[in-house]
Amino acid sequence: MRQKQIKSNDVMLQIFARILILIIITFSIYLLLAGHNNPGGGFIGGLMTASALLIMYLAFDMKTITKAIPINFTTMIGAGLLLAVGTGIVTMLFGYPFLTQFFDYFHLPILGEAELTTALPFDLGVYFVVVGSALTIILTIAEDDK
Amino acid sequence: MEILMSIMIGIVFTVSIYLFLSRSLLRVTLATLLMSHGVHLLLLTMSGLQRGASPFLNFQADAYTDPLPQALVLTAIVISFGVTSLLLVMAYRTFKVHNTDDLDELRGSADE
Amino acid sequence: MNNLVILPIIFPFVIGAVLILLTKHHKLQRIVSGISALVLLAISIYLAVVVYQDGLIVLELGNWPAPFGIVMVADLLSTLMVLLSTLVSTVCLFFAFKTISPEREKFYFYPLYFFLLIGVNGAFLTGDLFNLFVFFEVMLIASYALIVHGGTSYQLRESFKYVIINVFASALFIVAIAWTYSITGTLNMAHLAERVAELEQSGVLNVVAILFLIVFAMKGALFPLYFWLPRSYYGPPAAIAALFGGLLTKVGIYAIIRTFTLIFNHDPGYTHKGIIVTIAGFTMLFGVLGAVSQFDFKRILSYHIISQVGYMVMGLGIFTPLAVAGAIYYIAHHMIVKTALFLFAGVAQRVTGTTDLKQMGGLLKTHPVLAWMFFITAISLAGIPPLSGFFSKFPIILAGFEEAQYVISGVALLVGLLTLFSMMKIFSYAFWGEQKHTEEQARLPIGKLLLPIAPLVALTIILGFAAEPMFVYSLEVAEQIMDPSIYIESVLKE
Hints:
The complex is a heterotrimer of chains A (146), B (112) and C (494). Chain A is mostly helical. Chain A has helices at residues 2-8, 11-34, 42-59, 62-68, 73-93, 119-144, and strands at residues 103-108, 112-117. By secondary structure, chain C is mainly α. Chain C has helices at residues 7-21, 26-54, 76-99, 102-106, 109-125, 129-147, 153-184, 189-199, 202-220, 229-232, 238-263, 268-293, 297-318, 321-352, 363-366, 368-382, 388-402, 406-431, 439-442, 447-450, 454-465, 467-482, 484-492; strands spanning 57-60, 71-74. Chain C has a domain at 267-482. Chain B binds chain C through residues 20, 25, 28, 32, 35-36, 38-40, 42-43, 45-48, 68-69, 72, 75-76, 79, 82-83, 86-87, 90-91, 93-94, 97-98, 106, 108, 112, and chain C through 130, 133-134, 137, 140-141, 144-145, 148, 151, 153-154, 156-160, 163-164, 167-168, 170-171, 174-175, 177-179, 181-182, 187, 231.
């Protein structure tokens, strides 16, 4: 009963959510990639993506979203942790200390000259962990509320 | 500026201690949040509030700020984010199970 | 460059992450975590042997040089602590296989277990003050989740207080770090030690030192900040309670020993012989009095954690190589024995269905193996020769008399006596007397539960009979940490 009521009032929110989510996710990915030599990084990028996904949960109901994004967020935490720690371990295999970082400049097709670092996969791991854990926390409470 | 910050940190601490001593679960949770804010500000203030560019590679400036306290504060913020969310969930569950958020009623008897 | 140092931290990290992905497969989870615990034990033994033979290992993370980057340092003390923590956690894990309920297994018990180990091992191995804070938090967050794991109403109520107290202590930890940074401008422990020695400002430094002492005392359950311990350790299941009882407070004690031997050794007359010794005395006395007044198996053991933490801190407070060596020996003895006793409490609860001593009795007749294993560990805890408890208390008290600290040594002797009294109380109520559990309970087979505890009982006997090599080792550890220049030189490479 309560859910139906919320649904019928949601037209504005749903339309704006579609636009907003696109902008927020784009910006969050920019933050993730810029985070090496500029303000940004995996943590705030992840939080921003999580907030975008949360708007989605607010605007549409739970079932639609779980169908649209069939990701188990706890699995995402595990994968993110493995990715982050894996970056450090790879450098260990070459005989350098844990988490030593390397970077080089590459010429990429569309983007032109770009700096690629080993900090990026680490940040990506952090990003996954943050998105996964933020959504797990909030959805756990939200699902309990029914 | 440091003195102003110190006074402000003092106020934040006072409010958080007041909340710590209240009897509601939610207020105590908020107190930990406020306390962590005060502590983070203290960490920044104690290491000196400097003016200057951020210590990134492509910023040219005469003076740079000390990056270490900023890195420390960022880490501490992330940690307190995790702890606070865990504490919120725990306070919520405690409220659900015990049907009260009054800490006086959550004392527990001595002989159980 | 030796990456061996970081293995006890990374390995549980990887395993914990893998176990998150495996939560749906119970069997596989158990196999993976069991094998990894054994591998971790092997790694820490290897690390301890390497450090014992070749001296300190320093790893500069990310190849950043020492005072600027984060360093991991493995010296004799930290490798010994890592070895003990992995030993204790392995035993508790195998005990958990038999006792933990499937509902708890489903909710990330094993990943949390390994995350706890990251924090503990990291705190032992780090050479950076802020990094110590981070690893403390990793350990604490995992412990918050584990102590409330299962979510019974008692657990929720008491764990909330446990969490609040620890969050408060962590906030004070950052305050202390902020002050240290503003005074010295560094957070690398070796660099700090060097600068503190140059500063000659004992007033300000004493304030910071005492603030650190308060923080670690809250985590290590020292007087007057121990009040949270007995109630919160009562709630969780035996395997978790044993792990916490054996491990967590000792991380706080390790931090006290590390900071007060390496960094704040500028004014030992005030900080060590004055404050720490006084606190140690009160801790021992109040802990043991609490234990004597209780009539519950688990609560008596919890209060004894407090009284025994006092012995370790007393060893540090007297601050001679003999006393510190005694404290280190005592930590080793205590971690082994206390974990075993908590696990025995769990087994007894499994049989009788209660931990209230007045409702127990006659276990000696129905389960003699449990009773005698408990007896050996209990008298070892009380300090009866030739078990490890005697040989660890002896040097501390001897050093106390040598340094003319008669009051504290007298208190320590009295506390030993009262410990024996409360252990015998458990034995006579729970194991002697009339059988109060049903025949059905009396036939309950517990051999499989006792098997993981047996190595701990064997170790306390071995540590007693082979006291000399173990004591020589602790004396070497003590001499190494009493001479901070070794640590400073190997970290800063001067």
